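Running this now, will post back.
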Amino acid sequence: MASNWIHRLFNPHCEHCQEEREDSKVCESCETLRRQLEISNFDKNKLLDRLLEKPGPESKPELREVTRPQSIPWAIRRQMLEREDREKAKLMAQAPQPIPTEELEKELDVAAATREAESKH
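Update: finished.
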């Protein structure tokens, strides 16, 4: 080591020393390209591993039996429709009746008049 700096002192333009200096310099763009290449190679290897891995057992979808629509005789179909209509009518009769608009307007007028009377006092 001690002789190395002495050699450089007396022979600054030695070919061997010059090559050594050039090799020791780090090119930033080369390092960036090396890092990008490493990342690219890593991604490619990961993808290749994924493509080459053996697939696990696949679950087969359940097949349902295809059933044909059964034709219903008209008499039975008519009875079903009439029963549904009777149920709808029964539910509509039991449903609360809407309040007529005139009554709601009267209630609003009374409430507004009450508020005005209270605000004047």
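The CA atoms of residues 81 and 87 lie 10 Å apart. More later if anyone needs it.
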